[in-house]
Specification:
Elements (H helix, E strand, L loop, with lengths): L1 E2 L10 E4 L1 H5 L3 H13 L3 E4 L5 H14 L8 E8 L7 H5 L7 E8 L3 E6 L4 E5 L3
Parallel strand pairs: 2-3
Antiparallel strand pairs: 1-2, 3-5, 4-5, 6-7
Helix pairs in contact: 2-3
Length: 129
């Protein structure tokens, strides 16, 4: 995992987590890795994102951990990038198309504000509280 290091309280740490590392983890290990980073005030970027089931579980676990004085929850933004080998209907039906890889940005709800999101860009404002 690549990490940007903190310089005192002046910066924001960004954890860039590779798809390979995430593939080695169970769903709950992925969720703990993400939430532990966010609890520390870090922005977590996943190279390949989460499955819909994993994302639902992340939201469910996050909701159980929200505390008015300590943890405000998460902000999560995802955008797909196509990695298709075959775009034909027959190719998709026969399983010749790889699943869409997704880049996901997750951070503390009180520190990250999405300014713009489209098919190829997530623009966010990150503050250090």
């Amino acid at each position: 995992m690549a990490e940007a290091t903190k310089t005192g309280d002046d910066g924001v740490q960004i954890d860039l987590i590779s798809g390979q590392r995430m593939d080695e983890l169970t769903t709950m290990e992925k969720i703990r890795l993400i939430l532990d980073g966010v609890h520390d005030g870090n922005i977590v970027i996943l190279e390949e994102g989460l499955t819909p089931d994993e994302e639902s579980k992340l939201i469910e676990v996050t909701m159980g951990e929200i505390s008015p004085d300590e943890f405000n929850g998460i902000e999560i933004e995802t955008y797909p990038r196509s990695e298709t080998r075959s775009s034909s209907l027959l190719g998709r039906l026969m399983g010749g198309e790889e699943p869409t890889a997704k880049l996901t940005v997750i951070g503390p709800a009180n520190q990250i504000e999405t300014l713009h999101k489209d098919e190829s860009l997530i623009s966010a404002l990150v503050s250090r509280n």
